[in-house]
């Protein structure tokens, strides 16, 4: 492949100084950070640039509560599963920052989320020269080679403080992350928050005024927020509105955990639709709408202690859904429907927190310029090769890769950290060699 440094080749009328990169990464969370590392450690130099709309690397900062822990082993870091001797591993970070002995003494595979964030920042500092922060990608458009008629490059439209500009890329890797989901009919405002912005909103709130809070959801974020509010605002009553009867445990046992192994991606990818459906059905409870054992027990202990002492600061509305929320005088009036007695009632709170999850990454918004050139299945989802490259028209000779948004083709780990080191390695390998690591292992592309 042509891996000269940034070039200015002309193919059609455009600004004379358009930069062209081998790889442009859209979004700079853990997935594309891991890709930047894979490219850095790769056998061939490539020109790569990453564009991130936030002002710096910020990984789920609205949920970095002090006691929140990772739900993935420290060994499933940005690099180790791809390259166990990488200088970018979590162990290298611990060693570099003098924390190795203390971490080992803890005998815990699961770091706190805050510590993991420090690790991400440490790794990011080594590849920062490849990243433009405060820069949003608003569109990707085809660039046609006038000689061959092939779309061999993409124009990436960028928006930053200075205005709009563009670069070109032979390959783009879209990694824009999960999209926060609100309950149907509810909008975010000053008093109705989504969990993704929880800490920002909480810090901005006058804490003294927080007397009654409702948290809707029964997943990990919901349980963590209930625990945090209970512990941090001693006088507040916390209403947990659960769509389930109680919090259900995240299955972290070894056989179930194999569903996140790199080999499971091959099995999912080549499996029949029935096999794919079965994997989702049986193993959703490793990640979706479930809570770590430790957090469940913490909450139960608090509720139980309260009862012993004759107070009830934690209240659970079971099998219940929020159907409306509106501002009434000084309160947010939350309308709750309980399935148990099919009753609807109002609850007045200061704040409603919607820990109602996320939708998968949806790259369609920035790929509209390629409409008609990208293959889709009968349900309108992108068709994706094993190396995470979008399948498309024959004249599409540039590469468009996804990190995320591949749950229907690559399985449960698509939106998670479990497989990012291997996935980034596969994408880097595909970009650099034009072949796929999977094809070499005999898995059809
Ligand atoms: C609170 C929370 C905790 C989690 N904990 C775990 C865990 O412990 N283990 C696990 O496996 N998974 C976990 N996850 C799942 C999560 O998806 C991954 O942790 C991880 O964030 C995936 O990384 P990513 O880079 O693909 O996406 P993200 O981290 O979401 O990064 C995407 C980036 O793209 C940027 N961006 C979006 N659109 C644009 C654009 N148009 N232009 C430029 N930049 C853009 C965003 O600002 C963002 O920085 C957690 C999720 C949440 C919400």
Automatic annotation (TrEMBL):
<dbReference type="InterPro" id="IPR036188">
    <property type="entry name" value="FAD/NAD-bd_sf"/>
</dbReference>
<keyword id="KW-0503">Monooxygenase</keyword>
<keyword id="KW-0285">Flavoprotein</keyword>
<keyword id="KW-0521">NADP</keyword>
<dbReference type="InterPro" id="IPR025700">
    <property type="entry name" value="Lys/Orn_oxygenase"/>
</dbReference>
<dbReference type="Pfam" id="PF13434">
    <property type="entry name" value="Lys_Orn_oxgnase"/>
</dbReference>
<protein>
    <recommendedName>
        <fullName>L-lysine N6-monooxygenase MbtG</fullName>
        <ecNumber>1.14.13.59</ecNumber>
    </recommendedName>
</protein>
<dbReference type="GO" id="GO:0004497">
    <property type="term" value="F:monooxygenase activity"/>
</dbReference>
<comment type="pathway">
    <text>Siderophore biosynthesis.</text>
</comment>
<keyword id="KW-0274">FAD</keyword>
<comment type="similarity">
    <text>Belongs to the lysine N(6)-hydroxylase/L-ornithine N(5)-oxygenase family.</text>
</comment>
<keyword id="KW-0560">Oxidoreductase</keyword>
């Amino acid at each position: 492949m042509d891996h000269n440094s940034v070039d200015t080749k002309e193919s059609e009328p455009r600004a004379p100084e358009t930069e062209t990169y081998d790889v442009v990464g859209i979004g700079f969370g853990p997935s594309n950070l891991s890709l930047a590392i894979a490219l850095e450690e790769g056998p061939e130099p490539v020109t790569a640039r990453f564009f991130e709309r936030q002002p710096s690397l910020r990984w789920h900062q609205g949920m970095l509560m002090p006691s929140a822990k990772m739900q993935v082993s420290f060994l499933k870091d940005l690099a180790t599963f791809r390259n166990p001797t990488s200088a970018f591993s979590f162990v290298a970070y611990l060693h570099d920052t003098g924390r190795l002995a203390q971490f080992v003494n803890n005998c815990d595979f699961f770091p706190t989320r805050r510590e993991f964030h420090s690790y991400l920042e440490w790794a990011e500092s080594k590849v920062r020269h490849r990243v433009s922060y405060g820069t949003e990608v608003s569109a990707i458009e085809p660039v046609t080679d006038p000689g061959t008629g092939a779309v061999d490059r993409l124009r990436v439209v960028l928006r930053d403080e200075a205005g709009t500009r563009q670069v070109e890329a032979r390959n783009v890797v879209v990694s824009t992350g999960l999209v926060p989901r609100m309950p149907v009919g509810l909008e975010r405002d000053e008093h109705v928050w989504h969990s993704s912005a929880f800490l920002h909103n909480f810090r901005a709130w006058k804490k003294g005024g927080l007397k009654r809070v409702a948290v809707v959801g029964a997943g990990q974020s919901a349980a963590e927020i209930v625990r945090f509010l209970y512990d941090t605002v001693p006088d507040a009553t916390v209403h947990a509105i659960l769509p389930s009867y109680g919090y259900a445990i995240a299955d972290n046992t070894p056989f179930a955990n194999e569903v996140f192994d790199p080999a499971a991606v091959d099995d999912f990818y080549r499996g029949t639709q029935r096999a794919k459906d079965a994997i989702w059905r049986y193993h959703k409870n490793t990640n979706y709408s479930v809570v770590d054992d430790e957090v469940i027990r913490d909450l139960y202990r608090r509720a139980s202690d309260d009862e012993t002492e004759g107070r009830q600061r934690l209240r659970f509305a079971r099998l219940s859904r929020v159907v409306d929320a509106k501002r009434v005088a000084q309160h947010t009036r939350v309308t709750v429907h309980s399935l148990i007695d099919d009753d609807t009632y109002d609850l007045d709170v200061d704040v409603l927190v919607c820990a109602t999850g996320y939708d998968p990454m949806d790259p369609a918004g920035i790929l509209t310029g390629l409409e008609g050139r990208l293959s889709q299945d009968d349900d309108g989802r992108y068709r994706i090769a094993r190396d995470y490259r979008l399948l498309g028209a024959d004249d599409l000779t540039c590469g468009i890769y996804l990190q995320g948004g591949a749950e229907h083709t690559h399985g449960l780990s698509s939106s998670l950290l479990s497989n990012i080191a291997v996935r980034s390695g596969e994408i880097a390998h595909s970009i650099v060699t034009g072949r796929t690591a999977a094809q070499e292992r005999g898995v059809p592309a």
